Amino acid sequence: MKYAISLFSLLFIISCTTPTEKLTTSAIVPNVTTASTGHDEISLAKEWITVTPDVSDRLLETLAQQVDDLDIEISKNNEGSGNLFLNLDESLDAESYRLQVSDKRIEITGGSESGVFYAWQSLRQLLYNHLWSGEDWVSVEITDQSKYAYRGYMLDISRHFFGVETIKSVIDQISLYKINHLHLHLSDDQGWRIEIKSWPELTSIGGSTEVGGGEGGFLTQEDYKEIQRYAQNHFITVVPEIDMPGHTNSALASYAELNCDDKATELYTGIEVGFSTLCAEKEVTYTFLSDVFTELAQLTEGPYIHIGGDESHVTSDEDYIKLVDYALEKVISSGKTPIGWDEIANANLDDRGISQYWASSENTSLAGSKKASVIISPAAHAYLDMQYDSLTPLGLHWAGYLPVKKSFDWSPETLVEDLDPEQIIGIEAPLWSETLESLEDIEYMTFPRLPGLAEIAWSTKEKRTWETYKAVLERHLQWLEKKGINTYKALDE
Asked: Is 437 part of the annotated catalytic residue set?
């Protein structure tokens, strides 16, 4: 069985390249747990790959696709001969792996296929370092495991709509850095972006525009399934968000009965927040929430549904609690775990839900006291839509400017007083799209800050220093440019 990428070509290049310096594992982002390297340059013969039968063809196909920029061809041979061995060892944690490169042999052992996949990301970076940075190919042995189970990236497709192919490109890019959750912000004042068949006007009306008055768009249910399949092949879980009870103007414009006065609102194409709310007094509101969350849960392969809950400035405290409580219980009864922005701690959140810290340490402390798990996404450090500096042509700066060093130089464990670090399940880097209109815009605001946030999510604090990381990141910027990714390039402190 052959796949579209060539190890033969790679092996030839490795054998013939005259490198300038020794390969080091320090080029890998996120940093690995342990690593040792040999001193002698090695070469790999032009041989077929051997893959053990317990590794799926799906995984092998994804690995092959991921090295097409190295002109590698991967072939499958289970008769014992070859130079690449992929193994599973259930005694390891699921995401853990061992990577061994020796003369004429590469061996990867993962606790599961996800561990094999993450080893492959480290191997890809070693290959980029060799072929694009000129370092020698030497023997190496790596053992590695993640600090946090949840390593997330959020893409807002509501303010501006981004379709299937753009989202797939984002998945390709973030998977290199071992990100394993893609949070899709699917509804907001400016647009409803996921087809709900029981409420069709959410997309026909609510999805018809975007910030600035563009034509908008939405994901059909088949689109959404396709994105999930693609994400799963990259060991990424899709987390869909329906934001409520605020940020709901697109729904209120689609269905008059969701408004307390029974009058549909006007479609909205600006960027202000906090002016919309569902009507807590009407039974139809709860029918709407039940239908939407039930249908979305049935479509969603992963374990999470995000209910939003932020910036409900015109919702009374009583109504907010009533609406959020209903959403929490509906998601749970649909078989999913609810996530919400940190404001949901003011409702009846408990250990069945997850609070996402973005603004209020007080709300997050409250969530912790209620035994909820926590995702850390501080706007001042992790919001990728914050401008790098005053000259950045895209983004906003309401949470301050976010230079590359500031996005790297922080620790999730120290941000919220009285929060048990054991309650933190991970971090997420949100990218809001008020000012973003293209994949190139997404890339510019994402890179090079995302690798640093991935570092925080994967490695321990003791392994992170800005001085060391900056030198590594400069090399990654060169690689990203070679891959055709649009990046911000200034790393000045």
From this structure: no
